């Protein structure tokens, strides 16, 4: 997995560099990324309510919960972009900055793909009898992927923002 390789490289650089992040690198703020973390983790619980709904043949419930999840995912991405525009370092500032943008950007691409999966589920749910308690593979696959994105973010947030 590419993300595992990126995390490993980040940890190696963090270990071999005498000072990490390098001197002169502005400190990362925690408030916005912390709020973003809460939003993303909460969205997994919201999404699970959608899966619970379809297991009861409640297509409308699936649609509502997945739509809320999509909005939460979009808010996460907007928060990430806001952070990018307000950081005091760029992609080429130093190794830490480059690693920061690559890791968070790659994760952002995964979130974007997850949003596309959620939107595909929502679109298909508009077709009569596409999803039911017997036919919910797309719902389960989208949810599993979204949980994966959450776990990756928790690791990324811990490595980049907290350690």
Explain the overall architecture:
- The longest helix is centred in the C-terminal third of the chain and has 31 residues, at 95-125.
- The radius of gyration is 18 Å and the shape is elongated.
- The two termini are 23 Å apart.
- The protein has a single domain, classed as Four Helix Bundle (Hemerythrin (Met), subunit A), CATH 1.20.120.
- It is mainly alpha-helical and 163 residues long.
- It has helices at residues 2-16, 31-55, 59-86, 95-125, 137-162.
- Helix content is 77%, strand content 0%.
- Helix 1 runs antiparallel to helix 4, helix 2 packs antiparallel against helix 3 and helix 3 runs antiparallel to helix 4.
Record keyword descriptors for this entry.
77% helix, mainly alpha, single chain, 5 helices, 163 residues, Four Helix Bundle (Hemerythrin (Met), subunit A), elongated
Quick take:
This protein is an all-alpha fold. It has helices at 2-16, 31-55, 59-86, 95-125, 137-162.
SSE layout and pairings?
Elements: H1 2-16, H2 31-55, H3 59-86, H4 95-125, H5 137-162
Helix pairs in contact: 1-4, 2-3, 2-5, 3-4, 4-5
What fraction of the residues are assigned to beta strands by DSSP? Answer: under 5%
The CATH superfamily bears the name: Cytochrome c oxidase, subunit III, four-helix bundle
Report the span from N to C terminus: 23 Å
User: What is the CATH level 1 assignment?
Assistant: Mainly Alpha
How many beta strands in the DSSP annotation? Answer: 0
The major beta sheet can be summarized as: none
Helix content percent band: over 70%
Give the overall shape, derived from the CA principal axes.
elongated
Structure classification = mainly alpha
Please name the CATH architecture.
Answer: Up-down Bundle
CATH topology: Four Helix Bundle (Hemerythrin (Met), subunit A)
Q: From the alpha carbons, calculate the radius of gyration and give it in angstroms.
A: 18 Å
- Low-pLDDT runs of 5+ residues are none
Question: What is the element string, with H for helices and E for strands?
Answer: HHHHH
Q: For the residues shown, what is the average pLDDT? A: 95
- Tally of contiguous helical segments: 5
Q: How many distinct domains?
A: 1
